Amino acid sequence: xxxxxxxxxxxxxxxxxxxxxxxxxxxxxxxxxxxxxxxxxxxxxxxxxxxxxxxxxxxxxxxxxxxxxxxxxxxxxxxxxxxxxxxxxxxxxxxxxxxxxxxxxxxxxxxxxxxxxxxxxxxxxxxxxxxxxxxxxxxxxxxxxxxxxxxxxxxxxxxxxxxxxxxxxxxxxxxxxxxxxxxxxxxxxxxxxxxxxxxxxxxxxxxxxxxxxxxxxxxxxxxxxxxxxxxxxxxxxxxxxxxxxxxxxxxxxxxxxxxxxxxxxxxxxxxxxxxxxxxxxxxxxxxxxxxxxxxxxxxxxxxxxxxxxxxxxxx
Length: 315
Ligand SMILES: Nc1nc2c(ncn2[C@@H]2O[C@H](COP(=O)(O)OP(=O)(O)OP(=O)(O)O)[C@@H](O)[C@H]2O)c(=O)[nH]1
Ligand SMILES: [Mg+2]
Fold this sequence. Notes:
- The chain has helices spanning 6-13, 15-29, 37-49, 54-70, 84-99, 127-140, 155-168, 181-194, 211-229, 247-258, 278-285, 306-313, and strands at 115-120, 145-150, 171-173, 199-204, 235-241, 263-267, 289-293, 301-303.
- Helix 3 packs antiparallel against helix 4 (54-70) and helix 10 (247-258) packs parallel to helix 11.
- The chain is α/β, with parallel strands linked by helices.
- The longest helix is centred in the last third of the chain and has 19 residues, at 211-229.
- Helix content is 50%, strand content 13%.
- Strand 5, helix 10 and strand 6 (263-267) form a beta-alpha-beta unit.
- It folds into 2 domains: 6-102, Four Helix Bundle (Hemerythrin (Met), subunit A) (Up-down Bundle); 115-313, P-loop containing nucleotide triphosphate hydrolases (Rossmann fold), CATH 3.40.50.300.
- The protein contains 12 helices and 8 strands.
- The protein has an 8-stranded mixed β-sheet with strand order 3-2-4-1-5-6-7-8, with helices on both faces.
- Residues 127-128, 151, 157, 203 line the site of magnesium ion (MG).
């Protein structure tokens, strides 16, 4: 079978959100000639229902009204034109403009020092598999990769990484289950420095006995690694599961307070109709979205590009 193009994969991955969003927008617009208050209210309910959040929805609708006024589609004696195509087109444009500032890519060092990345997130969000997919991409670009199995809380996590490291050709640094995660991360960085490796990816636990413990542990890993490096960690990537919708925002704020984030990875967009949550995430957190995941295979994790995302979402 021919390899599916990324845009098709993305469309397929966003299908649940797309169908719900486009389906209800299309039926709200059907037969309408004016973008009046009634229609705006319907659109508001649809967008909030698609997890865009109240604030992002209101600013989107404000901009929509502005454009409609400019084109005299707001009901004050404007020409009676079918609004469908025009409104969808504007929605696409406005959403793209809202999401573009959130585009970002991994910052890889060019000074010969290893780029060190900490991967965090709650349990099951997709940390380990996203880390493995990122490792695979970096290996394909010819970069050497060290993976630190710093989730020592879950014994299976180390085995999971062993398989991945072997598969993508990365060096795994591990200790015994229950060992100090900071020590694992430290050893991985030490190894990378001594062997001129390009990238260190540090996997972390998603659950400890309490949330407080988890945050303290992440801060400690950060401290230990930064002390060895003599500088800040290059990337602090938070992995967020899109299926939790609006809760992703709260979660992100909690992690951001413990460890200031440099990037987000939004996973499982394929498993939800709540993909619209990417909009409030982009608007409120102001942390670049570095990758999005629309499936379990390695090719399903890609860099986030606003235009193609919106195209797939509102096609
Ligand atoms: N459908 C889908 N599944 C995904 C995606 N990303 C990750 N997963 C799946 O989510 C499950 C959990 O992924 P892990 O990477 O183990 O999650 P984790 O955050 O490391 O979990 P803990 O180590 O338990 O904290 C796995 O079955 C992954 O294959 C995605 O974009 N789409
Ligand atoms: Mg894991």
